[in-house]
Amino acid sequence: MPTLLLLHYHPLVPSRSALIATLGTEPQVVFLAYQLLRQRERAIHRVLVFHTRSPLPEIKSAVRAVREAWATFAPGTPLELVGLPLDDLDSEEALRRAYGALREGIFRLKAQGFRLHFCVSGGRKPLALASFLTAQFLFGPEDKLWYLYSPPDVEALGMAVSSPNPRVKLIELPVPIWTELPLFLTAISQYRDPWTAAEVQRALIRRAERRRWEEFFHQRLTLAERRVVQALVLHGGSNVELAQKLGKSPRTVGHQLASVYRKLRSELGEKVPIDRATVASLFAPILRA
Description:
alpha/beta, Rossmann fold, Arc Repressor Mutant, subunit A, 2 domains
């Protein structure tokens, strides 16, 4: 059974912002991300930094540098450093533990009403991938994922990098938000295991999509259009062959399919190609059940 978080997504648009950052051996990543976000936001009200519990002295030094410099650097902005319960992301079990810790941190901030800015530049690539995975499952439409870019010569300056430095940039990474419904986001957040979360996510999507196209089929299409779609899905064939099955003229079948296409475009938008294959794929789960 999953460990349940008794937290829910804040019902209103968040008015406060929080920075989440991953940390490896370069402590300046956290400070630069904070500075650049401050240029975009009026304030950053909370900072949460994740790092591995690696025995490497470089990582321990980076954690210590952030902790010691923060009070002077950003007085009044609370900082929390969280050691992920692993040395490295070297197994499925390590990914499971990392996802669980990231998930709890993200959901705790969202439950407190924060809009999230997640900078995934610190640490090794597997940590960035685990962070991106967590964002895909848990982010709402108001949350942002960022990558901090700095040229090699600027990186070499370490904590001595000057700010603001026009060569250092925050690049927003697009996150495919699978739903904006708080109920579904809350349901997914209950699972500490990313594989289980992915399975539940797919099931929720299938259920929601089936309900969506059932309603479209019965409410948006006329009886004549439903019969043409049903014949196309169950039997296939050209307009001539469909016309023979339905006792209509090929011209009438063509007009009715064209009407279905127009209604689908109004539902899905102009960028989605609409054709006979689209109709079959959307309505087959309903009509072949």
